[in-house]
Amino acid sequence: MKPLKVAVLGCGSVGSQVVRLLDEQAGDLTARVGAPLELVGVAVRRLDAPREVKVPEGLLTTDAEELVTRADLVVEVIGGIEPARSLILRALDHGASVVTANKALLAADGPALYAAADLAARDLFYEAAVAGAIPILRPLRESLAGDRVTRVLGIVNGTTNFILDKMDTAGSGFAEALEEAQELGYAEADPTADVEGFDAAAKAAILASLAFHSRVTVDDVHREGISEVTAADVQSAREMGSVVKLLAIAELRGGEAGEAVAVRVHPAMIPRSHPLASVREAFNAVFVESEAAGELMFYGPGAGGSPTASAVLGDLVTVARNQLAGTRGPGESAYAERPVLPMGETVTRYHVAIDVDDRAGVLAAVANAFADQGVSIQTVKQEGRGLDAQLVVVSHSATDAQLAATVDQLRTMDAVREVTSVMRVEGGVE
Amino acid sequence: MKPLKVAVLGCGSVGSQVVRLLDEQAGDLTARVGAPLELVGVAVRRLDAPREVKVPEGLLTTDAEELVTRADLVVEVIGGIEPARSLILRALDHGASVVTANKALLAADGPALYAAADLAARDLFYEAAVAGAIPILRPLRESLAGDRVTRVLGIVNGTTNFILDKMDTAGSGFAEALEEAQELGYAEADPTADVEGFDAAAKAAILASLAFHSRVTVDDVHREGISEVTAADVQSAREMGSVVKLLAIAELRGGEAGEAVAVRVHPAMIPRSHPLASVREAFNAVFVESEAAGELMFYGPGAGGSPTASAVLGDLVTVARNQLAGTRGPGESAYAERPVLPMGETVTRYHVAIDVDDRAGVLAAVANAFADQGVSIQTVKQEGRGLDAQLVVVSHSATDAQLAATVDQLRTMDAVREVTSVMRVEGGVE
Ligand SMILES: NC(=O)c1ccc[n+]([C@@H]2O[C@H](COP(=O)([O-])OP(=O)(O)OC[C@H]3O[C@@H](n4cnc5c(N)ncnc54)[C@H](OP(=O)(O)O)[C@@H]3O)[C@@H](O)[C@H]2O)c1
Ligand SMILES: NC(=O)c1ccc[n+]([C@@H]2O[C@H](COP(=O)([O-])OP(=O)(O)OC[C@H]3O[C@@H](n4cnc5c(N)ncnc54)[C@H](OP(=O)(O)O)[C@@H]3O)[C@@H](O)[C@H]2O)c1
Fold this sequence. Notes:
Rossmann fold, Dihydrodipicolinate Reductase, domain 2, ten-stranded mixed β-sheet, six-stranded parallel β-sheet, elongated, amino-acid biosynthesis (chains A, B), oxidoreductase (chains A, B), HDH (chains A, B), Homoserine dehydrogenase (chains A, B)
């Protein structure tokens, strides 16, 4: 059988492991694809940089543009917007199928790439872009294709989960936990992309698009990171039997003008009994709610060269088989064209901790502030501490605008000394 | 676009929900498939039986043989060996693609069915056959196609998990927990298929075949049920920070004569820190270990009409798309042709609790029994109780034959009053 020519663009953490597995698993890959996969080139920026893998003589090149024109299958693991985008478009244009792990690019400009894949009648697969090794995109796109997904809750960033887990289990503050994550290689020197939720937001956009068959880009995602999560927030969560997680949330919401998609990334308290609560360290997990299947969870390593390469190679086998069969897998599915709801209209719940004067009438005043905004209260806990008291209020569901306005109003009240913690609550029973 | 004709064989728990979803999701299914799915008939045994769904006028039939000849896509949810097998073969022979949830049939006679699908160049998909709604077969077959799976540990029977969970959380005995499961509809009046591990064994065979690209039938699966698990076993597990679960285990094992597959179903103690330990009630979960991806877990409802129908419809969308594109998905993959290891040669670990005389030299005698069989000991815990003592021994890994011989030898020893609990240990660190 004639081999299929494979070009790998990038030979860093992920690319080096793709190259290694292509070599080590060659026999199995041939049997599973139905033809050998022949590595024809590996594009890098620096020819002489040290590599984690021995790339066969003569295959390293800095000319990615030329390389993609002579491959049947192109693996893009450079990352970032350019030159990744141009190279993918060029590869498709030359008749190659493409596998990529590039969440940033897909979340920023997915539709243009899917359109190019359609035009070329080639596959563009990207399982590795969300939650690393965990098969989540294929299940969403294919296994649940006969069901109606209503909600996806994901822990899709290992760095932030590691930090929040340390804050929970070791009682560390944010800065200390971040430092530990950096020492252990879980966080980068500049941790902004992870800590401020940019990485998770890109993944949330991809998950929302697939789950709801609609176009969602990273600009549609309301994003809050974890840099302002305090030890007090984590403690407050603990006291109500919850844990703080950075969640990527994509929901289907009914509305007057028809169904819409709500998509956001923010820290939230979830009950310890929720399956996502026990996701430790840098692991990822995606929890899916659908009408017929009910609640599903997918759990595993969300990053790392070798796990991510596993997901890349799974896609590679599929697109290679498709190419041999002269067919392609499912392309973009955006037929539902559901609009994205603004954050203010998104329905959520708040946990608010406030220091108040310990005197009669304060609780009533606080309760009134919630009522004024039309927010009903699920629980209030009051703890006197001498002259002042702490009130912890958990609301019922309301729009984020109503809840935010309530907090604003609390801040203006005489009896309120300080709003010490505001955090959304997810995954619970109301 | 010309509709694809769908025949549903069986209209019980699963079939009725398939019929419902085909109707309720018609619009979405059309958009996802690229053509409408038209229900052309529903085969049943009794035309006048009450149904959970309103089957459109004129579609119910008792002539399944005729029905399958006029469908493009056939859903088999009758169950059992015959007439399910003949109907599937007939459907394929007439050019239909088939989706089934029938684990018993696949585990007994899969290869003949796959061969018929190959011959007909049609799809035979069966995601619903293992772990109900949980997408596990597709991830194994496709997402991990570029990786090397080394082990699959599954809780794939909800009835037995419910019973063991009750024994753990409520301290019930087996009979009492079974009765509760029956009252709540989790166990059938004749619970043999579940309780004695037959159902899990069928699923283990299917998982092993896919994970290791080899033919494994239910006859290859060593099977032990949970009817002999006692409250004392569960208590013993609890004391060592473990929990008893009925596991379906499929492993790749190196050996002198090359790699082999070990596949078995039995109760085992797993540490409470293991992700499978927190699978409660009738939920299912499958834990997969692979070389590149590491550890993955898939969790959700393992049964129920509507969850199972979700998995059936996911397959139906794929095979419908394939049929429109004139292609088919991956067929049987048995190229590795790995032999199945007999249980005696399978490597495992034992937890053994024994009542012994409380006198000097007994511990040494017991330790010698292990040593005689070449089994090394990880931990021994001795608890004096007056005249007698309880010894709890956890072994290191050894073949099942060595471990079983050790237990036999213990039973013959003068100082041993009774072997009170013997159970395998899985999922731990040695
Ligand atoms: N790392 C993970 O755990 C992980 C997980 C999921 C997804 N991803 C995604 O996978 C992709 C790759 O990540 P990574 O961690 O492997 O990145 P990385 O370690 O930084 O590697 C990037 C590679 O791309 C090469 N490169 C950069 N610019 C290039 C250019 N203009 N032409 C050709 N090659 C160029 C680099 O060459 P030199 O080596 O010569 O500098 C390097 O080999 C990203 O999209 C990332 O988001 C990564
Ligand atoms: N139930 C679950 O949760 C679940 C989960 C995973 C997989 N499965 C699998 O799904 C399959 C169906 O299970 P189920 O629970 O839906 O079974 P069920 O409730 O017993 O339904 C079986 C259906 O098949 C029909 N039937 C029986 N013999 C027939 C024949 N000779 N010709 C035509 N129709 C016939 C019955 O007709 P009448 O209604 O007229 O008697 C009934 O509608 C089985 O393979 C099972 O292992 C079930």
